[in-house]
Each structure stands twice: as structure tokens, then as C-alpha cells.
Amino acid sequence: MRAEPSPAAPPPAETAFSVEQAGTEPVPADRRHGRPWSLFTLWFGANVQFATLSVGALSTSVFGLDFLPAILAVTLGTLLSSALVGLFSTRGPVTGVLQLIQSRGPFGRLGNLPSAAFTVVNGVGWCVVDTLLGIFILRDLTGMGFAPALLVMAAAQLSIAVIGYRMIHYVERGLAVLLVIVFAVVSAYGFGEVKVEASSEPFVGTTAAFLLVIAVTAARVLGWSAYASDYSRYLPASAKPGRVFLAAGGGSAVAGVWIGVLGAAIGTAGAVADPSSMVSRLLPDVLGTVVLLSLLLSTLASTVIDLYSGAMAALVAGFTIPRWVSVLVVGGLGTVLSWHAGHGDFAQQLQDFLLVTGYWLAPWAAVIVTAYWWRERGSHGITRLYERSHRFGWGLPSVLLALIVEIPFMNQSIYTGSIARAHPAAGPLGLFVGFAVAALTYAALTAWKPAPTAAPEPRMPVAARAE
């Protein structure tokens, strides 16, 4: 595979509507722009969407939680993972590089390849979820068949993601106000119809259902953490970390709690067979049409983030194609898989996907937190992230050990671990056990290495040796 460009090489100038040319290199000082507030609108818009509503609805319609416990579970899961999105976003202005480039520090260049591969899978998976939700809406609105709706969704998603970073921020900012108004209307109807007790029988008991809702809600937001710095790396190095944290984490948390709890309220009315119908059945015909159109736009806004960062992950893995071509490849794969997934049980597929992604992302996030904020406190310089000699770190062994520990806790439609089978309430704890094991393992494996006490992380990317 051809070497990546030197991290000191600046990409050409771009406008809002030109196709972004930047790849995996750091963003130079003269290309930095924007304010932390832009992260609030981005992550708010990304979470005020149909997938958030659907995951919230699972808590009451499928898992059988009563409404009040569902509120608490959705809130806890959202806040836990939104804090990581905010924390990881603070590294963007400091380094100017992608989130997965930063993970080369604790993982090494070769040790980071599984993380890059999984991020591609995560981007493709969320593309499938959001594409299916968009298809449900299009079928309700127009009556068109599955295949035409799939093609419409694919074309709309790819057109935005191909253009890149600036267009994504513009779209998210423009939709933020519209979606607040739309979901305020849906909230007025949805919370008015809420039933204090769920309509279905408890899934596997109150405790197990409560923990499962925390786990799947946390996993939904945790998927964004692998992308966090991708959308803050263009901010000036002078951006204050506290403001970046509050903007990114706050946007994710406010939207995630609001829409997740709204979904739980709507879910008390019945099972989620066709997610779009759970909204349309609440509203008058004309209003329902307007709301579903807005939900379709929110679904597109969410998908383009997954396509953009999934494509960037492929570049980090070593593919030497242009960024926009990578978007087309990732989006094309997501479109093909959407065709297959569209003929299955949506609720079960969504639950399985969230938990599977969480099993990897929780240990990975634990290593990043430990490496940059606890054990080594950001000692991995920008130059080292691009050095070929830095092949492996202790991050991958830590994650692999955590995955092994998680196996008995796994509870999927295709596999149930021994602990989850014997004690269903313990199954959802696997994500949190994996996080703790990975963090402690990485800290132990790096304990021999003196923690830095002097020079802080450089505020701007430095020139590094060409690869």
C-alpha cells in the first residue's frame, strides 16, 4: 500500500460546495475555522433523528419497561456515552487530526487496523439502520416500493457525504432549528398519549430490561465517539477544551435524552413493527406528512456523518483511494446490505447491532480515555502518530482481553453467553465490564512507562517524517 501523505502537507482550499480533498493529514493552521458552538448544532442535529426515537421506543414497546424507569435508563445511557463524545472532541482542536489517527498512539499503526476496520463496519451498519428508517418513511408517504425507496435514500445520502466536512456542518446547522420545531410538535402529541405502564409483558424482568435499555442507549451514542474529533479537527487550536466538551457532549446529551424519552413515551402505545407508523398514527394527516418529511431529512443528516467517518476510517486503514471514492464504496456497501436487512425483524436487528458495536467500542473508548487523560496524559505527539516504526501499542491487547471477558455476557439472537443465559439481568453489564477491564489492563501494561510531567501536547501539528 502506498504511504500516506506527509502530515505537514496542506490540502487545497475548499468552499462549502466543493468536494473536500483533505485526507488523513493534520489540518494546518491556515485552514482552521469555526467556533465550538458549531459542534452543538452538529451533534444535536445528529441525535434529533428517527434512530434515536426508535431506540427509545424499544425500551417500552419491546423490552417492556414502564415509562418512568425507561426515562431514567435512557437518560443514564445517553449521558454516559455523550460525555465520551464531548471528551474525545476536545482532542480535535489540539491535534487537528482524525479520531482514528489519534488512536494510533495507544494502539500503534498496525495495532490500530482492527479499530479502523471496525469503524468502517460501524459506519456501514448505521448507514443500513438509517437507510431502512428512511425507506419506512418514503413508503408511508408515497407508497413507493422498497427498491425505488432504497435508491432514493442512497442517492441523497451519498450526495452530501461526498462533498464533505463543510457541507455536513451546513446541513446539520440548517436542520437544527427545523427539527426542534418538528419534534416539539411530536412531543406534544407523544407525551399526551403516554401510558404510565408499558403495553407489553416484561422482557426478562424489570432489572434486566432496565440494564438492557442503558446498554443499548449507551451503545447508540457510543458509536459517535469513534468519529468525535473528525468534526472538531478544523476548529482553531485556541478553542477552549471546556467549551468544546460542553458543545459536543451537550448537543448529543440534550437531543439524545429528549428524543429517546419521547420514543419511550410513544412506545408505550404498542410494539415497533414499522417505526414510521408509530409517529404518523399520532398526528393528523397533513401534520403527519410534514413531520415525516422532516424525519426523513433528519435521517439523511445522521447517515452522512456515518458515511463520512466510515470512509475516513478506510483511508486510515491504508486504502489509497480519494476520500470521495471511499464514501461511495462505504455507501454502496451499506445500500447493498440494506436490501438484505430490509426483509428481517427491524427491532431485533437494531438491538443486535447496537450491542455488537458496543462490545468493541466500550473497550476501545476505555483505552483512549486511559491513554490520553489518565495514564499517559496525551504524551503521544503528532509526529509519532504517523511514524512507521510505531507499529504496535498496548491498546489492542487490552481490547482483546476485554472482548474475551465480555463473551459470557453477550446476549444476541445468534449467541448467548453462559452468564447471560444463567443470569439475564447480568447480560447488559458486559459493555461496562469490558470498559473497566480494558482501562485497567492498559493502565497496568503501561505502568512501567513513566508518565510525562513536563511538555504538554503541542497546540499545532508539527511536521512529521513523510511515510
Record keyword descriptors for this entry.
467 residues; mainly alpha; Hydantoin permease; disordered C terminus
Question: What does it look like?
Answer:
The chain contains 18 helices and no strands. It is an all-alpha fold and 467 residues long. The longest helix has 32 residues.
DSSP summary, beta strand count: 0
Q: Tell me the quaternary state.
A: single chain
Query: Rg to the nearest angstrom?
Result: 21 Å
- The biggest beta sheet, please? none
Order of helices and strands: HHHHHHHHHHHHHHHHHH
The structural class is: mainly alpha
Q: Low-confidence parts, pLDDT < 50 over ≥5 residues? A: 1-13, 198-204, 451-467
- Level-2 CATH architecture of the domain at 29-107 and 115-343: Orthogonal Bundle
How many DSSP H or I helices? 18
- Spell out the CATH superfamily of the domain at 29-107 and 115-343: Hydantoin permease
Text of the CATH class of the domain at 29-107 and 115-343: Mainly Alpha
Shape: globular
Fraction of residues in helices? 55-70%
Give me the CATH fold name of the domain at 29-107 and 115-343: Hydantoin permease
End-to-end separation: 11 Å
Kindly report the average pLDDT value. 81
How much of the residues is beta strand, in percent? under 5%
